[in-house]
Amino acid sequence: MTMKKILVPVIILLLVLGWGNIIGGNASERKKYNEYMSKAKALDEKEIYIDALDQYKKALEFTKDKLPVEEAILDDYLNLKKYKDFEKQGSMLLENYNYPRAITKKVIDYYMERKQSANALKVINAYLERQPNDGDFLELQGKLRGIYTEIYFAGASIDEYYNGFYVFTNDDKKGLMKSDGSEKIKSQYDDILPYGKDPIYAPVCKDGEWYYIEKNGYKKLLPDFKVDLLGVFGNKLAPYKTGEKYSYMDEYAKKATELTYDFAGGFANKRAAVKKEGKWAVIKNDFSQVTDFIYDDVIMDDFGFATSQNVYIAKLDGKYHIFDLDGNVKGSEGFDDAKAFVSDDIAAVKMNNKWCFANKNGEIELMTEYRNAKSFSNGFAAVYDGKKWGYINKKATVVIDFGFSEAGCFNSSGVAAVKKGTWKFIKLVE
User: Is 204:194 a contact under the CB 8 Å cutoff?
Assistant: First the structure.
């Protein structure tokens, strides 16, 4: 018999013995796994959770499919009120197993039960990054985003937000607050507007004198000619008023043009709205006209900007329309009234005595029937039901109940100014 003929059956025998050992080993491990799991489940039924934990941890050593065991351990940590262990175990499972739906729900329920809405929302957001079309979690996200905390404010009033700042009034004097509600410039001025974008100066009036301050509150620019009002800088130009006429100054507080208007708005995206003899036009920052004086009205934000969101809203032939920066109308539908775009979100428009919301293409994107509304910002819009203000999301779901006598738009930091007896800030959970 040749060596080759001898080796073949030997190799076959060794393979058979090897597989037998593997199969036998697997069977043995499976037996131990089942024993530990059976004991653990029996102990769980008797609510002896501490001993059940030990059995589950032993079972882990005898299986490659660890997720069911790890989930059972998670449950018993909660049963034992070992909250830190639960949170640690939950975080591990979510990260290691890519946010399984059932475990994700358990972790969210835990945070909700403990009134930790911000933590719950973080888990939901992470899950939706992986499963963006899960309707149940999308609905829960919408509800949670409407949960807010109050930020104390003792002043008399708060104006709308612009470029990172609110104007607030305290003891009949005005100052500036940052977007998070913290004080930046103390209330010491007769009047003040937020910092401009180019350059970053804020117009103030003190003891009847108008001038600009820089970011630390120091006087920066003082016109060498009479002004009765200063506006916010944009594109290195700012409107000013002398007597009954408006014009523009440059970044050095020098007159930028001899042209005068009955009203002049601030420049944004190299465009501004101006008024003359009862009609409005849009001009460029070289003072050439984008349009003739054809509009009956141009919608501006509280600080005089009409074009900060790359479109503007103007009234033409009895209806408000949305226009691009070159004066081309967007969409075919006209509106009875409108509010300025606050961000890239949809804007509030009025049709048939009800407020709804349109996009920058001039199309109605969300129909509602509220008595008043403000444009969307940060995913929410303030709406008025005839008695109080509340907030809705883009599905028209009320996410913050109607409880405010006044309500502002949410800024990019999730902060809004509201009035409920007194003025205060509210901040969305993150």
Answer: no
Q: DSSP assignment, residue 380?
A: B
Contact 293, 279 (CB under 8 A): yes
Phi-psi label, residue 208: left if phi above 0, alpha if psi -120 to 50, beta otherwise: left
Backbone angles phi, psi at 277, to 5 degrees: 50, 45
Residue 385's domain spans which residues?
330-430
Residue 56 within a domain = no
For residue 409, being part of any structural domain is answered with yes
Phi, psi (degrees; rounded to nearest 5) at 303: -115, 20
Tokens of 248: 């523009």
Q: What is the mean pLDDT of residues 254-273?
A: 97
Domain membership flag for residue 67: no
**What secondary structure does DSSP assign to 211-254, as a single string?**
EEE-TTS-EEE--SS--SEE---BTTEEEEEETTEEEEEETTS-
Beta bridge partners of 283: 272, 289
d(CA 74, CA 60): 13
Longest dimension (CA), the chain: 121
Q: Pick the closest to residue 428 from 15, 146, 136 (CA basis).
A: 146
pLDDT at 3 over 50: no
| Residue 157 to residue 168: CA distance in whole angstroms | 6
- If you search the block for the tokens 């069977």, which residue do you land on? 27
Q: Is-contact 118 112, C-beta < 8 A?
A: no
Helix (H, G, I), strand (E, B) or coil at 342: coil
Tokens of 201: 């100066």
Cβ neighbours of residue 182 under 8 Å, at least 6 residues apart?
none
What is the mean pLDDT of the segment spanning 361-385?
Answer: 93
Question: What proportion of the chain, given as a percentage, has pLDDT over 70?
Answer: 93
Residue 332 has phi, psi (to 5 degrees) of -105, -15
> pTM score, two decimals?
0.71
Rounded Cα distance between 60 and 164, Å, is 53
- Do the domain assignments include residue 395? yes
How large is the average pLDDT for residues 258-286?
A: 97
Q: Are 90 and 74 in contact (CB under 8 A)?
A: yes
Burial of 361 per CB tally in 10 Å (0-12, 13-18, 19+):
exposed
Read off the pLDDT of residues 199-244 as tens digits, 9 standing for 90 and up.
999 999 999 999 999 999 999 999 999 999 999 999 999 999 999 9
Residue 7 has pLDDT above 50, yes or no: no
Work out how many domains the chain is built from and give that number: 1
* Nearby residues of 357 by Cβ (< 8 Å), 6 or more positions away: 346, 347, 348, 349, 364, 365, 366, 368, 373, 375, 376, 381
**pLDDT tens-place string over residues 293-322:** 999 999 999 889 999 999 999 999 999 999
C-alpha–C-alpha distance, residues 81 and 27, integer Å? 36
